[in-house]
Amino acid sequence: MEFGNSRKKKRLGDILVEQNVINEEQLKEALVLGREKKLRVGEALIELGVINETDIAKALQKQMNLGFVSLQGFQIEPDVLNLVEPDILKKYCLMPYEYDPVKPNVLRVAMSDPMDIMAQDDLSIITNLQIEPVVATTTDIRIAMLRNLTTDLLVHGKVETTEARAKEVKK
């Protein structure tokens, strides 16, 4: 029985080539750019205009065997929103969006970088819940922050303009 190869994780670039999203030349170009500018391969591919955020998120989903969520139109319950301070959400670019319906001690969290173990650990400590990372695009998470956090602030009597909130989220 061979254990070594079956447990080895494929690299993101290799998955994108396998899925015919990019070719070998584009991957090589992205690797060079990534080294020059200290970017991850996905960031370099996006900068080169070869792929978009959703392509990266879907490849990450496959690489890590995680779920994928689009937060567009998703209504996040206030009790979930109130679990974590907005500063933490912005720091790690993540958005808790629901409790697992079968395991209520598990919080599902949309993350642009589900490999960020520190973010998961911090969130687990803050919420006292187990964290289930789910892949989402950075843009989707930021839009969800604007929509949900602004609404939450207005509901709780704090008036903040969408423009001011957008600037705050981008920081």
Describe the structure.
The structure is a single chain. The chain is mainly alpha-helical. The protein is built from ten helices and three strands. It has a three-stranded mixed beta sheet with strand order 1-2-3. Strand 1 (94-99) and strand 2 (106-111) form a beta hairpin. Helix 3 (24-37) crosses helix 4 and helix 9 packs across helix 10 (162-170). The longest helix has 18 residues, at 138-155. It is elongated and about 45 Å long. The chain starts with a helix and ends with a helix. Residues 1-7 and 152-166 have low confidence and may be disordered.
State the end-to-end distance. Answer: 50 Å
Unreliably modeled segments: 1-7, 152-166
SSE pattern: HHHHHHHEEHEHH
How much helicity do the residues have?
40-55%
Sheet having the most strands: 3 strands, mixed
Strand tally? 3
Structural class: mainly alpha
Question: Strand-residue fraction?
Answer: 5-15%
Radius of gyration: 18 Å
Average pLDDT metric = 85
Number of helices: 10
- Physical arrangement of strands within the biggest beta sheet: 1-2-3
Globally, the shape reads elongated
Give a quick set of tags describing it.
54% helix; disordered N terminus; 11% strand; 3-stranded mixed beta sheet; 171 residues; 10 helices
